Amino acid sequence: MVFTYVAFLLLLFGTYNVHGLIKPKHDKVVVCYVASWAAYRPGNGAFSLENLRPGHCTHLIYAFAGINASNWTIKSLDPWADMEKNGIGNYRKMTALRKQGLKVSLGIGGWNEGSINYSMMASSSDRRKTFIASTVEFLRTYEFDGLDLDWEFPGSRGGALYDKQNFVSLVKELRDTFRGHRFLLTAAISANKDTIDIGYDIPKISKYLDYIHVMAYDYHGAWNKQVLPNSPLRSKDRLSVEDTITYLLQQGAPAEKLVLGLAMYGRTFVLTTVPETPKINPIGLPSLDTGFKGPYTSEDGFMGFNEICEALVLYPQEWTTGWDNYSSTAYAIKKDHVVVYDDRKAIMIKVEYVRRQKLAGVMIWSIDTDDFRGKCSLLHGDMALLDGLDYPLMKSINTILANNTIPSEEKKEPNSSSVQLLSSIVFALSVTIIYFPLYANLS
Ligand SMILES: *[C@@H]1O[C@H](CO)[C@@H](O)[C@H](O)[C@H]1NC(C)=O
Ligand SMILES: *[C@@H]1O[C@H](CO)[C@@H](O)[C@H](O)[C@H]1NC(C)=O
Ligand SMILES: *[C@@H]1O[C@H](CO)[C@@H](O)[C@H](O)[C@H]1NC(C)=O
Ligand SMILES: *[C@@H]1O[C@H](CO)[C@@H](O)[C@H](O)[C@H]1NC(C)=O
Ligand SMILES: *[C@@H]1O[C@H](CO)[C@@H](O)[C@H](O)[C@H]1NC(C)=O
Ligand SMILES: *[C@@H]1O[C@H](CO)[C@@H](O)[C@H](O)[C@H]1NC(C)=O
Fold this sequence. Notes:
- This is GH18 domain-containing protein.
- Helices cover about 35% and strands about 20% of the residues.
- It is an alpha/beta fold.
- The chain starts with a helix and ends with a helix.
- The model is unreliable at about 1-20, about 405-410 and about 430-443 (pLDDT under 50).
- One 2-acetamido-2-deoxy-beta-D-glucopyranose (NAG) binds next to loops.
């Protein structure tokens, strides 16, 4: 009778996945930025939080909040979308996903925020204090897990000489204050060696940050007036993922805090002359200083992966695709138009690199330009078994990460399902010990 009772308890608690959490099948972080303005894109490009698949990410970052340079507080850049009292309430819609086991942080800054107001805020102890206090209040109000600093970049783009030291002070003081609130503190940093040298004291900020999100893209673009990869794994000019990660490790960034950024977009180029045949590798060809736009993101020189793959599916006779082996990136050519981008293969090779280097995981810029509607399934037919044809890039990332994450000889801790089983048994036994006398009396 005792055994049936214990078996019953095991049945009840043993198969119970604590609070219905979505557990990724690997031990790496997958940090997904959500560009809040993606909601305003036209047609199939419009991305709202309902399109998010929480199981693909371990961390979400809401991009972006801003700095109010009148009183040095954090501020919403789009109160109508962010806050429910004005409109949609996306902050709380996103932080509600914490119930599913995700960590949800608020990103502050980004390219459009620039560097000047960040620089002025960080330059004074009083302003930092005001900023940090307002941030704590803000994160608590909307129930975020933490803050992601997206200062692009300390010491550059109008920033000041002492930004590098002031950034350390900002990060240290945020850490000191956040400790009591158990908030996460992360930062997105440039992948460019010169920008790193100007802006970041790597050993010091590594100490205070939980994770460093390496923006390992935008190495090249139309501004180079030459077709070059947005995010090359290797490069002879030393502007590449491997060069950046090697440099950061040399500077003293711990591998277990480095998170490699993956670009779910490509950079576009217009060649100075139409090539005689589209069956050429365009890398290195001269181009104009502007590219072209995609139909949803409408930003010159930029195309989301969803826009690229839809173009390839809709107009296969117009586009010729190819692979640049040295940089491990894909390209597509249509007359004088070229887009260089990361396809599934390029992304998977980078994720394998992350595993080999034992980095903390990957960061996604940004989840709203994966093929989140599954419009390009013709290109990804081999994914038919993977629970629908949407999110080909996110699924590829998680597949590689879940592939036998830790070789068994290196494993030190028991895996989560055995921990869960063990704790269920302990729980069942203690319930039995407490209630068995009562149960025996009743029967
Ligand atoms: C910086 O702050 C000033 C003063 O509030 C504001 O006018 C300006 O737009 C801010 N800069 C950016 C890039 O938001
Ligand atoms: C910025 O701060 C000033 C001064 O307190 C305030 O008047 C203004 O409304 C704030 N702006 C935003 C967008 O919160
Ligand atoms: C800054 O301005 C905002 C918006 O008006 C206000 O809510 C906040 O109280 C002000 N903070 C400080 C420290 O003055
Ligand atoms: C592709 O690049 C790698 C790394 O540089 C090299 O080892 C390999 O031989 C190349 N393969 C081809 C087919 O060129
Ligand atoms: C899993 O990893 C092994 C060894 O690295 C590799 O041989 C295999 O192809 C991988 N499987 C998948 C599905 O990627
Ligand atoms: C985890 O442990 C369970 C029970 O010991 C075992 O069945 C399962 O294969 C393990 N999973 C991994 C990924 O090692």
